[in-house]
Every structure is written in C-alpha cells, then in structure tokens.
Amino acid sequence: MTAGERYERFMHLVRLGWDLHGLGVCASLVLPAGGEPVLEVRTAAGDPVRITVIRRYCGWVFTWRPWWARLWRRDRWVVAEADNAADIIMAEVNA
C-alpha cells in the first residue's frame, strides 16, 4: 500500500468518526504501532466494534466484520463515499 493510499484510508476513518460524533456516538481512532488504523465504536449493548476501511472494486468501503466473515458475506460493507455511511453502520451494528 502506498503512502497516498494510507493517507486516504486514514481520512475516510476520520470523516466517519466525525459523522458518528454528529450522531452522538462515541468513536475512538485507534492507531496501532504495528498495524492499520481502525475506528472503534460501542454498540447499544456496550460491545466494541472495530471499523476499518479497505479498497474494493467499487472504491473504498467501510467494514466491521472479521476477515473470515468478509469472505462469505460480501454484502456486509458500506461505500466510504456514501453520505449516510455513519447511519448505515450504526443501524447494522446495533441490529
């Protein structure tokens, strides 16, 4: 992954975090020393959910499923450019 792609991934997570903040959701940007950044939010039940952004054929998408779930449930992601991505993600993780 190039530096430009890393920057773009980071910017999508920051924008999502800000959109979630606008919905009244507490979100934390996690920047691990040896890995990729993730956005951590809490569900209505209090469980932590880690959201990451990956590149797909349609562009950048947010996903919060484990890697193995992404393999068999390819419909479980939200396009990062969607204006209502925060709404969709919170509805899905709280369902």
Topology:
Elements: H1 3-22, E1 27-30, E2 38-42, E3 48-56, E4 59-63, H2 67-72, E5 78-79, H3 85-93
Antiparallel strand pairs: 1-2, 2-3, 3-4, 4-5
What does this structure look like?
There is one protein chain. The protein has 95 residues and is an alpha+beta fold. The protein has helices at residues 3-22, 67-72, 85-93, and strands at 27-30, 38-42, 48-56, 59-63, 78-79. The chain has a 5-stranded antiparallel β-sheet. Helix 1 (3-22) crosses helix 3. The longest helix is centred in the N-terminal third of the chain and has 20 residues, at 3-22. The mean pLDDT is 86.
What would the keywords be for this entry?
about 100 residues, single chain
Strand order of the largest sheet: 1-2-3-4-5
> Care to count the β-strands?
5
Q: Could you name the ranges where pLDDT drops below 50 across 5 or more consecutive residues?
A: none
What percentage of residues falls in helices of 4 or more residues? 25-40%
Main β-sheet: number of strands, strand sense, barrel status? 5 strands, antiparallel
Kindly report how far apart the N and C termini lie.
Answer: 33 Å
Number of helices: 3
What is the C-alpha radius of gyration, as a whole number of Å?
13 Å
Instruction: Name the shape in a single word.
Output: globular
Series of secondary-structure elements, N-terminal to C-terminal: HEEEEHEH
- Mean pLDDT across all amino acids: 86
The SS-based structural class is alpha+beta
Residue share in β-strands? 25-35%
